């Protein structure tokens, strides 16, 4: 920063003032500066400019507040002027705070709520069928009657498409996107591919009785369904099926099915069925590597850690060797878990009942648990030493990842059982829960 002055003949201009403080609370900026000196003891007033636009002035105080936009560079100028027109300028540069947004689906109102993690307040809301599952190039993709792309920061609609046309209502859910295509389930049971550049349907495949999210890697989708083939591999470009996999038949009468997005790891696919079996399948051939019968079913997606696969089954969390399925450790989570684990810095975070649990990922040692006061159906995400998770208490919780202490529970969410998605900056970093299905 620097100051310059313009002196009128016979007049001592204001001088000797500098920037003292610049602070932010979200997009609210507070600026203060020292009082300019004037040898003639003239009264001094100030005009404050940001990027050449007058923000406030003339004012006699040496502080002000204004609103800025996230993720922006600013050039500030404060001009001190005395009664005779003598001026002195103070220039400074700054960058506004990086936006930090949590996207949470509110089932009570069928809206996605964008929550500012700086202020804990709503930034915007929009209608949607289900949770936010995919963000690309600054856009968040939602499905309500049509497919809609919105600006992640403002929520403004960028484009809208209706790839499935019929005489009744069509909604879209389980949306995933890469840099070329968007994939989603239409309400009547079709899996569709939309070209993002043209915003038109590329192909459509019928899935028989699919109830869970699908997964994708660079070239293929891995979708679950009910029928002869319970898991199928689909080309992202053509929609053609590469192979189908049939689950082991149950010992009882319960029809087997997969109720979560499969995990893709080290060339294999890992998942569980509703009959208490855990599977490893080669993703290239569709052939089973092994299956384990643990008698406890699960609706949650496994996670990988140091050549091990960790998953919840009933009221347990279990770690097995990825290549053999040999159990390396297991521990209790007290109640049936509907929450997919999240791994960060060698720790596992998972919800069960009304508690968020933390375990050591290598040993399974129970480190802490914290009650949220309401049943947890969502999966946690972790960023910058904080765990974010929603529960039936109708609030987004922020929890210290090291200690389990609840730091705040805000967000004006009426009722949410879905996992939050975090967006840092203009999609410089996106943190999904472990069951989101993308493994690019």
Question: What is the compact description of this entry?
Answer:
The protein has 440 residues and is mainly β. It starts with a strand and ends in a 9-residue tail after the last strand.
Walk me through the structure.
Residues 73-243, 301-369 form the Pyrrolo-quinoline quinone repeat domain. InterPro entries: PQQ_b-propeller_rpt, PQQ_rpt_dom, Quinoprotein_ADH-like_sf, WD40/YVTN_repeat-like_dom_sf. It comes from Salinimicrobium marinum. With 440 residues, the protein is mostly beta strands. Among the domains are: 2-95, Immunoglobulin-like (Sandwich); 98-125 and 298-425, Beta Barrel (Lipocalin). 0% of the residues lie in helices and 51% in strands. The protein contains no helices and 41 strands. The protein has a five-stranded antiparallel beta sheet, with no helix packed on it. The protein has a five-stranded antiparallel beta sheet with strand order 11-10-9-40-41, with no helix packed on it. It has a four-stranded antiparallel beta sheet with strand order 12-13-14-15, with no helix packed on it.
β-strand number: 41
The profile of the biggest β sheet is: 5 strands, antiparallel
- The percent of residues in helical segments reads under 10%
Mean pLDDT: 90
Class by SSE composition: mainly beta
Tell me the Rg in angstroms: 27 Å
In CATH terms, what is the fold-level topology of the domain at 98-125 and 298-425? Lipocalin
CATH architecture heading of the domain at 98-125 and 298-425? Beta Barrel
- The best one-word shape is elongated
**What is the highest CATH level, the class of the domain at 98-125 and 298-425?**
Mainly Beta
| Beta-strand content bin | over 45%
Alpha carbon gap, first and last residue: 44 Å
